[in-house]
Amino acid sequence: MVNDAFTFAIQGISFDEDYQPSDNTRITTNFANLARGEHRKQNLQSALTMINNRFNALVHWDNPNADRYSVHLEIISVEMQVNGQGNRFPCIEVLKTNIFDHKTNRHIDGIVGNNFSSYVRDYDFNVVLPEHNKNKQQFSIPEDFGELHGNIFKSFINSEVYQQNFNKPPVICLSVSDSKTYLRTENQHPVLGIEYQPNESSLTESYFKKMGLQVRYFMPATSVAPLAFYFIGDLLNDYSNLELSSTISTMETFQKIYRPEIYNANALAGKRYRPNLNHPDHSITQIVYDRDERSRLAKEQGKFAELHFIKPYQNILEQWSANCVY
Fold this sequence. Notes:
Order of helices and strands: EHHEEEHHHEEEHEEHHHEHH
Number of domains: 1
């Protein structure tokens, strides 16, 4: 492993009904989107209630009243400096789940990761990719697309800061792609549910692979569509049922809010499943979420990363990434 050019620092803030996004939070992030506007407190209360109800439904053993556990969420913001120079740049934001057992009055570690936000990813998808395909008749991907971002992520996961604060690698949970078809398999996990396999790989899979993450797709019990789980190691054996349930309950809730056409559909995914963001037969949650603003701000944040991180340190970043080995 090469000597790292980055110094990382993390800070955590509780995601609860009183949460207020900080000035340097990526405001396209799911939780920040919910925490703004006149309905902010109702949004947060409703989302947290959904998470707790879903968790207790998943963890139903020794839980006859479906109220034994509460899931507490912490927003983990990661900042970095390049060679100790200049101001810290807000590079990554994830969620950490924590479980409280009301029966035993015990706090139980959950999983770090879950949601994943990154300014550099915004730069890749909203600056690099459109510029590369400008005036081209056929869409293509730059040869080194996502390599810098992937190396930054791996550098963070291998840093002392990460090792001191988290005892397991992250698990990131995303929605399925509406451009792929997913086929149901015979494999079934007691919490993750039924495994699906895509008919082909996606750009997202390729991008996360450069971060050192592999992916598997599972549809938990009573869910209506599979979720994508990105992980390092052995997803099924490295994490407890409680840990996995905390990720499912958290991220499925977010998906129901901003991907209701898929995750709040009124029909179950079949053996051969093609997600459809225009699917009319779905239910809407009573939570206000601005998807159009989220897309617009992602472009602005990509430009921010270009201006404040990529261009000022371009030579250092290119040299470091080219020689980075993990």
